[in-house]
Amino acid sequence: ISGYSLVVQARDSGTPPLSSSVTVNVDISDVNDNGPVFTPANYTAVIQENKPVGTSILQLVVTDKDSFHNGPPFTFTILTGNEEEEFTLDPHGVLRSAVIFKHMVATEYVLCVQAKDSGKPQQVSHTYVQVRVIEESIHKPTAIPLEIFIVTMEDDFPGGVIGKIHATDQDVYDVLTYTLKSEQKSLFKVNSHDGKIIALGGLDNGKYVLNVSVSDGRFQVPIDVVVHVEQLLQEMLQNTVTIRFDNVSPEDFVGLHMHGFRRTLRNAVLSQKQDSLHIISIQPVAGSNQLDMLFAVQMHNGGFYKPAYLIQKLTNARRHLENVIRISAILEKNCSGLDCQEQHCEQSLSIDSHSLMAYSTARISFVCPRFYRNVRCMC
């Protein structure tokens, strides 16, 4: 307990007795009776041979139960095991290499490390650090090419995470880092640790080929990353049709079915080769295991096919479409449950371009805006 607050009352012996009160605060000052504590109590670390001088090997973690003026900053010292000065230990507890290690020279080092707190008198604790030297990387990293599709309203892309690079390495202790060529950093960023790709706001319509690479410290391997950005037109939203699927997650649809279904859908609904199919969004149906895919078809002259025409085409080709994935329903209007006839149902569709959904797999990522469908009876 670091302190007490007491209320003390003095009462006299008169008639009637009079009194007054005062608050007495008692602070309990801390003495340095707790030593630093290493977590874990002892450490094991690995470094590959031929790593450059200054390579980070280990971060020591130390806590102290005393108050702040009796705890950090801590003073770290290597007591034994560093007679040849192969290691350095900085004031933050980071153990680094001071030489280029060779697996043939030594395979293991055991260091005794001391941590001393800032109290008076100072308290001291010790830990042991076992450092193993392993052979340098012999395998190159391998990475899967990534294709990213972004759908956004006109000039209204807010930016965000749009996908993740999946890379592996057969060398167990290799740490992979990701880099993006500097001239592309005005539009995209890549997290150097986990390979997440971030797009900055305001992307223009078009195709972007990113110059990304992954390195294990010895080998550097290029990765094919292609980003397609499609900007929606307001007129598309008035001519959309929704296909609803059963028992499929957005990620499974993107990774397993989207390419094949897009190809089959184009064959089913496009009247001319110059027509364009636009998948606007996919999103789960709330409270179910169903998935809605919203699309429109643009004619080569710039206009859009009406939903009724597309639904007729889809109905005729439904058997072929279901060779790719099972369809639950084809929706133009969504008035089920409303007490009005179909021709008296008005539907409006709105897009929230600042609420993006990113469905990412190892090979393909689809980023699209959230949509809302509103229906009401006109009868």
TrEMBL record:
PANTHER family: FAT ATYPICAL CADHERIN-RELATED, PROTOCADHERIN-LIKE WING POLARITY PROTEIN STAN. Keywords: Calcium, Membrane, Repeat, Transmembrane, Transmembrane helix. Residues 4-38, 39-143, 154-245 form the Cadherin domain. One of its GO terms (biological process) is homophilic cell adhesion via plasma membrane adhesion molecules. One of its GO terms (cellular component) is plasma membrane. It is found in: Membrane. One of its GO terms (molecular function) is calcium ion binding. Its main location: membrane. It comes from Probosciger aterrimus. It comes from the Eukaryota. It holds the Pfam family Cadherin. The keyword Amino-acid biosynthesis does not apply. This is FAT3 protein.
